[in-house]
Design a protein that fits this description.
This protein is of the alpha/beta class. The chain has one domain: Rossmann fold. The chain is built from six helices and eleven strands. The strands form three sheets. The protein has a seven-stranded mixed β-sheet. The protein has a two-stranded antiparallel ribbon with strand order 3-4. Strands 8-9 form a two-stranded parallel ribbon. A hairpin with a 5-residue loop joins strand 3 and strand 4. The protein is globular, with a radius of gyration of 15 Å.
Length: 181
């Protein structure tokens, strides 16, 4: 079974984070909600508090197949400021393990040089942060082990792209049909 970890910093975009959690769990992917704060309850950018499954200090990255970085402000900045998470993002990228980021969060990958020569997308005002990327105007873009999404309105195609990478196109298409997308 595949395992995903969605990382939450205070000020995350609720729909981007929770849509991924919901769709992956519906598909049977073991999906953890992980706080990069020192608290198990994390508040989103629209003041919605969500109880996490674990703190980042409690998880083993060796048991994770995909890292998911939701956007939102200042959530994206808080993810990027988490040194232990950034070390794992770099490690996953260098090992061709799946890293997915949506909205403002692909800027993190751009800042770290991970997007050089890759196709990627982000929230329009963050496109200048996709350093070295071939910027695409698509809801979600998969290039090798990297998956990026444009924003809240593209959370479903972003989540389905992650599911497709983990379980194949047929599983993603079936999920899209199941949720009437």
């Amino acid at each position: 079974m595949s395992r995903a970890a969605v990382f939450f910093g205070t000020g995350y975009e609720e729909i981007e984070a929770l849509t991924v959690v919901d769709i992956l769990r519906r598909a049977g992917v073991e999906t953890m909600m992980v706080s990069v704060t020192d608290a198990k309850s994390v508040t989103g950018s629209h003041n919605i508090k969500v109880e996490m499954d674990a703190l980042i200090s409690e998880i083993s990255f060796e048991q994770i197949d995909v890292i998911v970085l939701p956007g939102g402000m200042p959530g994206t900045q808080r993810l990027e400021a988490c040194e232990s998470l950034m070390a794992q993002v770099d490690a996953f990228a260098s090992q061709d393990k799946i890293v997915a980021a949506i909205c403002a969060a692909p800027s993190i990958l751009g800042h770290r040089g991970i997007l050089r020569g890759k196709k990627a997308c982000s929230y329009p005002t963050f496109e200048s942060h996709l350093e070295g990327a071939q910027v695409q105007n698509e809801p979600a873009v998969t290039d090798g082990n990297l998956i990026t999404g444009r924003g809240m309105g593209t959370a479903i195609p972003f989540a389905l792209a992650i599911l497709e990478k983990l379980q194949g196109k047929e599983a993603a298409d079936k999920m899209a049909q199941t949720i009437v997308y």
